[in-house]
Amino acid sequence: MKKLIYSSIFCLSLASCDVLHTVAKDVLSIPTTEEAAGGLKDALKQGFSKGTDLLSMRGAFGKNNLIKILLPEEAQTVANKLSDIGMEKQVNSVIEKLNEGAEDAVGTAKPIFVSAITNMSFTDAMGILTGGKGSATKYLKETTTNSLIASFSPKIKSSLDQVGVTRNWSDLVNTYNMIPFIKKMNPDLNAHVTEKALFTLFNKVEEEENKIRENPILRSTDLMKKAFAYADTQIKK
Q: Which domain holds residue 94?
């Protein structure tokens, strides 16, 4: 009888231990707000660092036909006419400088992203962490776009100025716009390149973010592993 009682107690103890272990494991798997924020910030830094490093390399835009920046669609007519009269080399030089300007501009993005992440609230971090694919990139778009435009503009202008694009193109377009009954063109190539560069940059950052969400192997810090393991259980697939 005593053996039966002891056996029952032993079994109950083991069962209790298993339950406690499971509960403890569940509790430990839930990150604190600070851990969630830290893991998300690590992931963002990893994502935008890789994105900006790749896109700021010389030739990253110009030698990749998928993201190469061309003249605005409405400007292509003018470019075609210039090429027809023997100025194709000059047109290609302009396009080359458009892309070099974008590459130089992207290199200025890192400190702006770092500032946005540093100032992220714990509430924002938890919401972004469990918000699913692209949530972190959306936050960066909302908080950094204006600063990035201000940072990109002088870099792009400097590149365009090297071949006299800023002045000569503006003069050419303004003259073209004086022709009656035509659709007016925006002479601001700087704004065009900035828009294209930002679009490509955020796409790349989102791609890196989603890789981290989808592939645990890419979670390179302990905080990232803990935070995103929890996020995996909260996000509806």
A: 37-234
